[in-house]
Each structure stands twice: as structure tokens, then as C-alpha cells.
Model the fold of this input.
Amino acid sequence: MALGADLETAWSHPGAAAETRKRILRTVLEEIVVPLAETRIERLLQWRGGDHTRLAVPRNRRGQHRWSTGADLHDLIRSLARQQSYGGVAATLNRPGRKTGRGTPWTQARVRSFRSKHEVPVHRPAEMAERGGLTLEEASKRLGVGKMTVLRLISAGTITASQVCKGAPWAIPEAQLSAIRTAELQSGRPRTSDLNPKTMYFQ
Done:
């Protein structure tokens, strides 16, 4: 009875170890009933004095746990996997600071593990070409211009290209390149003699 008069002090006392708190709970609790609902777990605490306390927490779905990544990241990795290898996907995710479910940077091994766990199809280098798409480098060689010129055409709307996310590879429809006139390639900024300039990323 003396313990019940000041239970909070006994619970938070520096000398109260985990085993002490377990003994307190066994003393004051009569029963814990845990009925399962579809979307939550309910707990009914029955105290020895006759009172009841109800608690409810969301129920994890199949495959979900506290270290899981968001659905948007799942979709992003699935899309990137159609364009890049393990290392390429990791670099694309790390560039804007995306983390794993545990808050760590992505590595080639972690992307491989994610793909295996979530049954993401393995990257096939020829897949983009089968869909009629070209990378930035391939479009540059096809047009005979530098990559910055191709980016300028994308920015101007002359070429309609897409990216899964910022920093991801460009997907350029091959059919659009045949319609580009020579004048469009030579307009604007002067062409560089180097058809494969280095790409620099600024953070």
C-alpha cells in the first residue's frame, strides 16, 4: 500500500533496474488482454484495484517493421533499377541524401539486398533500348554534339526527355532525334569540339 501511494517515485528511482520495474508491474497488474484488429493492436490493462486502461497501436502490415523504407522509395528504386546497375542506383540515391530504413547511406551491397528482398527485377543494360530510349551519352553520340548541347535541347523543350528523379539518368526517346534540324543544334551557345565533356555535380 505504501508503494502504491508513491508509485511514480519508485518506478523512476535511479536504483530501480528493469527487473525491479517488472516486479512492480506484476504486483499492480491483474491481466493484460491483447485483442487483434485488422489495422491495430489493442491492449486492455486490468489493474488489481479494478480499473481498466485501453491502449492501441497501429499494426504492422506484412513485411513492414520499424526499419522499413517508405513506399515512395520502393517505387523509386524499382524505376532506377530499370536504368542502372547496383552501384549506379546507390550513387543516385546518395546524391540527394536519401537513406536506407536504418538511416545509413546506400551501397552496392545494400541495393542488391533490397532488390532481393523486394523482388525487384535485375537490371538489364538493353532494356532502355528495347523501350526505344537513349541515355544522354547515346543521344550525344547519335547527334554528334556534346552532352551539354543535348541538355540545352531538353531544357528548351526541343527534346522531351524524362528523369526518374533529380540526378537520375535521362531517358530520351530515340524517335525524337531524327526530327531535330541542324540549325537547332548549332543555335544558342557555341558547340564544343569535345563530344564527351566531363560532368560535374555541385552540392
